[in-house]
User: Fold this.
Amino acid sequence: VYVDEDVYREGDSMPRRFRALVIGCVALLLLPSCGGLADRWFPSSGSGGDGLLVSGFALPDVIATERVAVFEKTYPQIPFEINEGSFDAQQFLSSVSSGNPPDLLYIERNQLGAYAARGAVMPLTDCIRDNDIDLSQYRPPALAEASYNGQVYGLPDFYNITVMMLSHEALQQSGLPVAALDTSDPRRLMQAHRELTEIDGGRLDRIGIESWVPQPQSLPMWSAVWGGQILSDDGKTALLDSPEVIRAAKYLVKLSDAAGGWGTYKSFVETWHEFQSDNEFAKDQAGAVVREQWAVTSLAETNPDAKIGVVPFRNQQGQQVALASGSAWAIPTGSAHPDEACKFAKTMTAAQTWIHAASVRAEKRAAEGQAYTGTFSGNVEADKVIFGELVKPSGNHYFDQALQAVLEAQEHAFSLPASPAGAEVQHAWQQAMFRALAHQQPVEDALRQAQNQAQEALDRATKRP
Amino acid sequence: VSTTIAAARTTRSKAWRASWRRRETRWAYFFIAPWLIGFLIFYGGPMIASLVLSLTHYDGINSPTFAGLDNYHELMSDPLVAKSLGNTVFYTLLNVPLTVVIGLALAVMLSKVGRLAGFFRTVFYLPAMTPAVAIGVLFLFLLNGQVGLVNEVLSWFGINGPNWTADPGWIKPGIVIMSLWTLGATVIIYLAALQNVPRELHEAARLDGAGPWTAFRKITLPMMSSAIFFTVIVNTIAALQMFTEVYTMYFGSQGKSAGGTSDAALFYVIYLFQEAFQYLRMGYASALAWLLFVIVLVITIIQVKVGNRFVYYETEEG
Assistant:
């Protein structure tokens, strides 16, 4: 056996020089975890520092930056940091597990129920009381969506509703009146869909009505047309196999079949350049599409001369219905600065803050020679001023009429109840719709299977200690 | 017998201790220490933690509660486990053989190119450097049933291509086509192995009257068998863990805007991710992770056992 006599001494299990090197390396590895060096080398990404940490919120436009500026001006003594980017469940769970959650969370309202049920976000009872927040300023469907078990868990931010956008040019080409796109008359609507759809040699050139299936809003919205809902009011019972939901799902499958079948339909929609100037309306690829109302304002910016309109969804009694969704501000349990977080949320959702940001946006658009088409907040008072005073006629009467239709539909909106297993319920019905659309399974069987899966998930989530 | 085993253990233990007196041994351990420490901290620790969590009900928020083998019982009866495993195995069975065959064919062609070999090596390897997310988005367009380039090429031969991204029956073959885009790494390994095949063997075979195909079958393939064996194992493990490209295409924001997809694209790791981070079932996801680990381990052991019968190593005698 070779022995290095220089460094090895009898009785030593490890030579001195080598031992010193190993100890040095271990010390180097451990040092960063000690006191000041740890902070300097590995600054904490979560709360616990002096400032308020806001997560899940981006600053893409003046509506965001100006509202933040209002907070800065109102509370100059509160330092804050915005961890830009959309809500990331993986990041949030990691921060919660490490006991280092952000102080304030910007999150889609339909995700709040699951976190509220598990105690990851706190009820805002103290926040609302201590900061004198007037809940009546918020749109009731938005507030309902951000509440769970009778307690408010989020302050509503944006407010979106689902409507049908139509192309006047496509309707004129097909000799159809706007009234043909009336969901309260499904037979007539299907006929209009068939007439608007153009298929040339198996290749789809125009979809009559793009139903938005299987996007999260689609089945709940179309179910409401038949007077149904996919979840009970308390969000704890799935109603996916109810007759109304089955009728809606069957109708969606028929719409898909009439446009060449699911494969053709989906492949065609995948080619659309939504939110760009060569979008589906510009290229005459759609007679009507189901979208959230902000698609109208987006189109007004990319294609100011487009001849588009909006028709609301109506139930079988002819009454307007619209599914509301959007985002909210929530405070994670364990937030190091809950009071500051509450002040931030209150300021961001206050009427005056929205109005200020909208004014700046309107001025900016005017300077660019463009019309300001509005911002849809969850604050009733703010919207009154924004759409009553700041939004002026755009010069395109089609857009102005579309906007009026959206504002009217907003007054007839409903929201899905906050659910402890919302993601699983959604996944269950979406997969059921895929199977039904591809004719792998009859609609009834697919939704029955989804119902069982969804209810199982809901039961599991509500049994949680 | 027990005395003999004990004696052998003592001898091994003494030999191990004695090995520490050798400078080379100590330096060897020193140099591999960063990897060992990294492995213990970033792999060993989390693996043990996930094994413990797999025995609990844990939502990633509240403290875990002991659940015994509940999660393992549940995954045995979960239809989505069977579905996602089926999808993953189907993909693996298509992807790995195709990667080996096409990779080998390309490597053989590249070895004949001569002066431009370096250029083509780079060209074939470039796709392997493309970010997985970009590949996912790119192939969502290329595979589009209406205007995709793949169907456009098929139409030149009078073939009416399927709806690769929408038809449940064609989604997985479409994903296999996408994955072949990045077989550059396998090609490079095969090319290196081809260049190591001694020319004398080919010359001797030619003198003995062997044709190109016989020489390839009897000399080239056996001499490359260790490289092929390596790529089969590595590609199998990678295929069983397929995630990023498919998630981008069908489950991420790109997929959602296109309308998502059916369970035809639900691969095992995607299901695991959904359970952990969308449905907040970290304990169940941990059990899923351990099932995958066991499956990968068993498949690899079988491959090694079977492979050892066919693989030729240069250090072998005779």
Observations:
- The first strand of chain A starts at residue 52 and ends at 55.
